[in-house]
Design goal:
By secondary structure, the protein is α+β, with helices and mostly antiparallel strands. It has 2 domains: about 70 residues, ACT domain (Alpha-Beta Plaits), CATH 3.30.70; about 55 residues, Alpha-Beta Plaits (2-Layer Sandwich), CATH 3.30.70.20. It has 4 helices and 8 strands; from the N terminus they run E-H-E-E-H-E-E-H-E-E-H-E. The strands form 3 sheets. Strands 2-3-1-4 form a 4-stranded antiparallel beta sheet. Strands 5-8 form a two-stranded antiparallel sheet. The structure holds iron/sulfur cluster (2 copies). One iron/sulfur cluster (SF4) binds next to helix 4.
């Protein structure tokens, strides 16, 4: 069982398709919608899928076949370690506990796998050390 995050882009012909239902019923995957936005030409979604790796691969192929752009999104944020001075401000704003204080070194460690792309840490960092690697 693994968990992976994907960025989905819908167009106006597939924006109303029930992606969550398909993932659960056909692929036995547990989906969690982390973010969703609609605009005039479709919509975008950040989706977490939890399940067997083969099922997730099958679901991605299926979604792409529906015309939904489906891209892995493992690294939404990136930190410039030369700028970071380990003040810890990002720890308290992150809802998924992606930042952690290493008690041995007193460094703030970032686990990008835990990131759900909320963007809170970007404005919390006084050193402007955190950047987006990709936009939702
Ligand atoms: S808020 Fe910025 S400078 Fe402070 S620990 Fe986090 S990344 Fe480093
Ligand atoms: S973007 Fe949000 S979830 Fe991701 S590391 Fe920053 S605060 Fe945490």
């Amino acid at each position: 069982m693994i968990e992976k995050k994907f960025r989905l882009r819908f167009n106006d012909s597939n924006v109303n398709d029930s992606v969550s239902y398909i993932l659960v019923s056909q692929f036995k995957i547990s989906p969690v919608i982390l973010q969703a936005k609609t605009d005039g030409s479709g919509g975008r979604m950040l989706l977490s899928m939890k399940g067997p790796e083969k099922n997730i691969e099958g679901a991605v192929t299926y979604l792409r076949g529906m015309g939904i752009e489906t891209e892995p999104m493992d690294n939404y944020v990136r930190r410039d370690d030369k700028r970071c001075f380990h003040c810890g401000s990002c720890i308290s704003v992150c809802p998924t506990f992606a930042f952690e204080l290493d008690r041995d070194t007193w460094d703030v460690v970032l686990d990008t796998d835990k990131c759900m792309a909320c963007g809170f840490c970007l404005s919390a960092c006084p050193a402007h050390a955190i950047m987006l690697k990709m936009n939702l």
